[in-house]
Every structure is written in structure tokens, then in C-alpha cells.
Specification:
45% helix, alpha/beta, Lyase 2-enoyl-coa Hydratase, Chain  A, domain 2, binds ligand T3D, 2-enoyl-CoA Hydratase, Chain A, domain 1, 4-stranded mixed sheet, 10 strands
């Protein structure tokens, strides 16, 4: 039996998904897309999972599309051109949407190079942390493409138009520290103990009121296209819903009685 292309590890309430083609820096094939999507859907449907971690096996996080895989490799001269929109509609778009709508927080643990779609899939996650030796490359223009997997939407929103254009047009390597400094990612963390730091962060999120975390993400995302007044209304409506949930009762009761809360809603 061949090795799974995505390793799935459950530890308590944390589900870690590891892209597993280290010999090709975990670049994405269609087969890998199928496994990754299935693993994300399974984690979403499992009420015991309260946080997902996405990482890569070996020295890379993900080098984007496998440029030799069927459907991506340019057609030989004289043949009809490869239609890259097919792969995007079939795999990348559903994957990006799945990552952005998971019912639990998703951490991208960027353990090594994240290039092309690999970089932007990380940016689709809720919190992006990177080992300080990792780097991010908007590699698309180097091969005659534009940033996909949400790159044209995510980059200007995360770092502003000028930096988005600098990253996308030049396609240079960006260190984890520079990525943190410009607000592209949450944190660059020391290589030594990276996995432990990620596990601590995942454990912290998993112990938090997950519905409140996801409602916070949704409201922050929605606010990108709402007026201030509309955001205030959305906050009120969402707070009404959260305020009637068990976790609110638990949070306040734990605070009042000076004990640690045990959150369980999902
Ligand atoms: O469907 C569509 O095509 C549209 C969607 C597009 C989305 C995209 O992601 S487009 C962008 C695709 N990605 C790239 O262009 C990045 C290509 N890779 C690189 O530029 C470099 O590998 C890195 C800068 C990421 C890392 O460089 P380095 O020197 O650390 O490693 P390496 O030696 O280049 O790579 C190691 C192996 O991984 C190597 O294989 P080998 O020679 O040891 O057998 C290399 O060929 C392989 N590899 C790396 N990236 C890819 C890949 N194989 C296939 N596809 C890749 N993207």
C-alpha cells in the first residue's frame, strides 16, 4: 500500500493534517487534493475536533501546484492548451472555501517553504505561524501565472496594495520574520520547539469557546464589506446568539466562582 498523501493525527481535540509528499516539497497533485478535502470534511464533521493544524512533512510546507501533475503541466506545442481553470474550479476553489469556513479554528503551521498556492493556502487559514527558517514565495508570476488560491483577494487585505504588488510581481522569497513584520502572518517562531509551540497554541484554541471563535472570524470577514453601522448590528445579532449558548453561561459562571471554564459547544 502506498503512503497516504495526507497524514491525519488526532490528539485529544486537535486534528493535525500533514501534507505528505516531502520529496516534491508537498506540492499538490489531484490525488492529494482529494485526500486533503476528505480529511478537512471529516474534521469538520467530527464534534470531538476543536482545532485543526495544517503542516507539511519534511523540509517544506507546500510548493504549490505540482507542475508535472496531470491537468497542470503545459500542453506540448501543437496540442490544445491546458485549461488551468479546470483544476482551480475542481480543487483549489473548494479547498480555499473549505479552509475559510471550517467550524473550528485552523492553524497553518508553516514548517518550511510555502510557495505559490502553498503560500496562499496557508493564508486561507485562521492563524498562520511559521518556523523562522521558513519562507513565503508568491511564485506565480515567475512561471507566467497570477496569484491564485485567493492570493489576489488575501494579499492586499492582509498587507495593503503596495506590499501585495511587491510580493506578487517580484515573487521574491519573504522570510518568516519579514512576513510577521508586515502582518502577512501571525508569528515567526523559533525552529527549535516549533512543533511544541504549535501544539500549545492549538491546545489553547481547542480549550476556548469554539463557537465564539468562529463567530469572531465570520464577523471580522463580513466587516470587510459592511458599513460601521452594519457591523454594529451584526455584532448585536451574533452576541444575541452566543449569549444564549451554554459556553456563555459556563464562561461567566467560571469567572464568578474563580474556576477554570470547561467549554463544550461546537
Ligand atoms: O493548476 C495550475 O497549475 C494552476 C494553479 C497554480 C497554483 C500554483 O501553485 S503555481 C506555482 C507552483 N509552484 C512553483 O512554481 C514553485 C516551484 N518550486 C520552487 O520554486 C522551488 O522548489 C522552491 C523555491 C519552492 C524550493 O526550492 P529548493 O531549492 O529548496 O528545492 P528544489 O530543489 O527546487 O525542490 C525540491 C524537489 O521538489 C525537486 O525535485 P527533485 O529535483 O529533487 O526531484 C523539485 O522539482 C520538487 N518541486 C518543488 N516544487 C515543485 C516540485 N515538483 C513539482 N511541482 C512543484 N511545484
Amino acid at each position: 500500500m502506498s503512503e497516504p498523501l495526507v497524514l491525519v493525527d488526532h490528539r485529544g481535540a486537535i486534528c493535525t493534517l500533514t501534507l505528505n509528499r516531502p520529496q516534491a516539497l508537498n506540492s499538490l497533485t489531484q490525488a492529494m487534493h482529494v485526500e486533503l478535502m476528505a480529511a478537512l470534511r471529516a474534521a469538520a464533521a467530527n464534534s470531538g475536533v476543536r482545532c485543526v493544524v495544517l503542516m507539511g512533512a519534511g523540509r517544506g510546507f507546500c510548493a504549490g501546484q505540482d507542475l508535472a501533475d496531470e491537468g497542470a503541466a503545459p500542453a506540448p506545442a501543437g496540442q490544445p492548451p491546458t485549461d488551468l481553470s479546470v483544476l482551480i474550479e475542481r480543487h483549489y476553489k473548494p479547498l480555499c472555501l473549505q479552509l475559510r469556513s471550517m467550524p473550528v479554528p485552523v492553524i497553518a503551521a508553516v514548517n518550511g517553504v510555502a510557495a505559490g498556492a502553498g503560500a496562499n493556502l496557508a493564508l486561507c487559514c485562521d492563524l498562520v505561524v511559521a518556523a523562522e527558517s521558513a519562507n513565503f514565495i508568491q511564485a506565480f508570476t515567475k512561471i507566467g501565472l497570477l496569484p491564485d488560491s485567493g492570493g489576489t483577494w488575501l494579499l492586499p487585505r492582509l498587507v495593503g496594495r503596495q506590499r501585495a504588488l511587491g510580493l506578487a510581481l517580484l515573487g521574491d522569497k519573504l522570510s518568516a520574520h519579514d512576513a510577521e513584520a508586515m502582518g502577512l502572518i501571525w508569528k515567526a517562531l523559533p525552529d527549535a520547539g516549533f512543533q511544541l509551540s504549535v501544539a500549545d497554541m492549538a491546545a489553547k484554541l481547542a480549550a476556548m469557546p469554539v463557537q465564539a471563535l468562529i463567530a469572531t472570524r465570520s464577523a471580522i470577514d463580513a466587516a470587510q464589506h459592511l458599513s460601521f453601522e452594519e457591523s454594529l448590528t451584526l455584532e448585536a445579532q451574533t452576541q444575541k446568539k452566543l449569549g444564549s449558548a451554554h459556553d456563555y453561561l459556563e464562561g461567566v459562571s467560571a469567572f464568578m466562582t474563580k474556576r477554570a471554564p470547561v467549554f463544550s459547544d461546537r
